[in-house]
Amino acid sequence: DMIDVLNENPIVRSAQVDLLGVQEFSVPNDEYYEDHQKEMYERMSIPEAWDITTGSSSVKVGIIDSGVNISHPDMTDNFLCEHKVTYLGFAEPSTTPHGSFVAGIIGAKGNNSIGVAGVCWNVSMISIKVIDYGSFDNPISGIIQGINYATAQRLPIVNLSMGVYSDTDPFADALKNFDGLLVCAAGNASLDTDQGRDGKNAYPACSDFDNVISVANCNIDDELDPSSNYGANSVDIAAIGTGVMSTHFDGTYAHESKGSGYYKLFHTGTSYSAPFVSGTAALLLSKNPNLTAVE
User: By the 8 A CB rule, do 14 and 80 touch?
Assistant: First the structure.
C-alpha cells in the first residue's frame, strides 16, 4: 500500500497512518486551577490519572493532624466527620490552618467552579484531630491515639503530615496494628533519615514498616528542597511540596499575602508533599478497591 511505498523511499524517514483521537487531559474548572495549580499538577501527571478516575466516595482517607474546617465550601461534600482525641492533662488541641491545608490537597472538590482542585475530587475524608500545630507541647500519645482510631475504623489510607524525632514502643505498636497505608511526611530538618543525627531520627519516616510511605519535598523541577529530610533507604518517594496552594481553615484559600499573615502564603514543606501521595493512593483505590496497603 501507499505507506509501504513511502517507507521504501530513501528520502522518507518514516510514514504511518495519521490517527484521530488527540485530546487534552482532564482539566477542572476550579477558579484557581489554571493559574496556581495546573503546572504543578501536570508535572506530577495528575490530569492523566483524572482521565481514568477522579475518585470515589467509597474510599475513606483519615487525616491525622490539627483538625480541619470540614465546613469549608470546597471540602464539605468530601468529609464524613471529625474525631477528636482525648488528652489526659492537656487542653483540647485547637483547629489551626495546617490540617485544612493538607486536606484540601487530598480532597478539595474538583470541577465545582470554585477554589482549588484536590488530587482526589471524590473521596470520604475523616479528620482525626490530635495536635495544636505550631505548639511544642503536643504529646506523642495524641498521634498514637489517632493511629489506633484509624485501626479501629479500618481506614485504608491515613495521611500523617507530622512526626517526632524519637520513636517509642507504643508508637511502633500502633503502627504494627494498623493494616492500612500510612503516608507520612519525611520531615523538614535537612536530615538523612538513613542515619539520623545526634542519636535522633524522624519517626515514623525512618521506620521500616512495609505499609508506611515516607515522602520528601521537591520543587517543580524535581529538585530536593533544601529543608527536606532525605534517605536512600528510608524515604520512599518525593512529591512537590514547594509553593503549594490549598484550602485555608477560615473558608478561603491560602495563595496570597493578605496583611502579614503567614498562613495566606503559598505553603512549603514535606507536610504538603505527603497529601499528594495520599490523594494519589485514594485514586488508585477508587479504581481498584481490592488493592492492599502494600500494593
Answer: no
For the cut 50, the answer to whether the pLDDT of residue 258 exceeds it is no
Contact between 286 and 58 under an 8 Å Cβ cutoff? The reply is yes
Q: What are 197's strand-pairing partners?
A: 200
3-class state of residue 184 by DSSP: strand
What's the pTM?
Answer: 0.87
Q: Are strands 253-254 and 79-84 parallel, antiparallel or unpaired?
A: unpaired
In degrees and rounded to multiples of 5, residue 70 shows phi and psi of -75, -5
Rounded alpha-carbon distances, angstroms, from residue 137 to 89, 96, 133, 204: 11, 15, 10, 19
pLDDT in tens, 152-169: 999 999 999 998 887 778
Strands 246-247 and 253-254: antiparallel
Cell of 228: 527536606
Sort strands 122-129 and 79-84 into parallel, antiparallel or unpaired: parallel
pLDDT in tens, 30-50: 999 998 899 999 999 999 999
Q: Using one digit for the tens of pLDDT, what is the confidence trace for 93-140?
A: 555 688 999 999 999 999 999 999 999 999 999 999 987 665 556 778
Contact assessment for residue 191 and residue 202, using Cβ atoms and an 8 Å cutoff: yes
Q: Are strands 237-240 and 157-160 parallel, antiparallel or unpaired?
A: unpaired
Helix (H) and strand (E) counts for the chain? Answer: 7, 9
Sign of the CA dihedral 259, 130, 106, 220? positive
d(CA 223, CA 230): 12
